[in-house]
Write a structure and sequence with these properties.
Blueprint (H helix, E strand, L loop, with lengths): L7 E4 L3 H11 L3 E4 L5 H6 L7 E4 L9 E3 L3 E3 L5 H6 L1 H6 L1 H7 L5 H6 L2 H5 L15
Parallel strand pairs: 1-3, 2-3
Antiparallel strand pairs: 4-5
Length: 131
């Protein structure tokens, strides 16, 4: 079993707190919401942050609203995006795409923000030095 390297964990209490923690951690800090990409990459040692900042439970980043346009928080899960009436009504292609990514289990963990910021899954690219 591969284990993630040691790291400090900071559970952000607000968006402002998360931004401050990210700035304090510099390039050695990473955000964690769903973790479907970061955690496996940490186990393979392709990403080894000193500090991981948890943002999944920040309500401001999980909202899906439809005012004059659609606004989706970075921490909205793919399942939430696929199931949202607000998304399905005016943005059916987005709802369909979110519902076709990976498996249902992953869709409930994976976030829209994480998928938009996804580093490639290419096995050749993701090799660490020991591979």
């Amino acid at each position: 079993m591969m284990r993630a390297p040691r790291f400090r964990y900071h559970a952000a209490r607000s968006v402002k707190d998360a931004a401050a923690a990210l700035a304090d951690g510099g390039p050695a800090a990473m955000l964690l919401a769903g973790g479907t990409d970061l955690v496996p990459n940490m186990k393979r040692r392709t990403q080894v942050p000193d500090t991981v900042i948890g943002i999944r439970h920040l309500p401001a980043l999980r909202r899906i609203s439809n005012g004059s346009g659609l606004a989706i928080g970075a921490c909205a899960s793919l399942a939430e995006v696929a199931a949202s009436r607000k998304v399905r009504k005016g943005y059916a292609a987005l709802a369909t795409a979110a519902g076709q990514v990976a498996t249902v289990h992953i869709q409930h963990m994976a976030t829209l923000g994480g998928n938009l910021c996804l580093d490639t899954r290419c096995n050749y690219y993701n090799q660490n030095a020991e591979w």
